[in-house]
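Q: Hi! First time doing this. I have a protein sequence and I read that you can turn it into a structure. Is that right? Here it is:
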Amino acid sequence: EITLALETVNSNNKTGTPSTMVVFGGEPLLRPDLVDFMFKEAKRIKHNGFAFSLTSNGLYFLKEENALWIKEIMSTNTLSLEISWDGSGHHRRKTLDGKSSEPLVSKALDILEKAGVKITIRYTVHKGNFENVAYDIIYFLERWKHINKIQISYAYSDLRREPKTIENELRDFYRAIYKQYQIPICLEVCD
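A: Yes, that's right. Below is the predicted 3D structure, encoded as structure tokens:
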């Protein structure tokens, strides 16, 4: 099915530019063999090429060999590795024992940085972290130097505010952060 999907997307691409494949949902790296197969098939097909975006909770990278594996994939594929982060102030993502996954994600980010893997932080603003957005983003950029952008999305229904109101409240902060760190902060998507 993966091969068929890649071939279909590739054959329907008449632009001559790489097709973008976004891999997310649940945790794609629960089956790293399928992710690895997808990259190998994309290289084999390579009509116009593929650009990939892989969103993960990051826990797969608690082992250094897994960080080196993704680094190797990134050296031969166009891949944006995005690590989800819920931020301080609220811990929606929990491990099987009910504890916050935040310390483990931090450790995985340390391992990815040590391996030289560039990442995007995927940060969802919700009622549990809205008051900490500024703190969290500065924390990311001060602690980890391998972040190449921060992708922001909003849980609007959770925040119970109008989307434009939220964006306007944070826009000047995002601009100031970009000016200081030269790291893009993208709202929903980056152009």
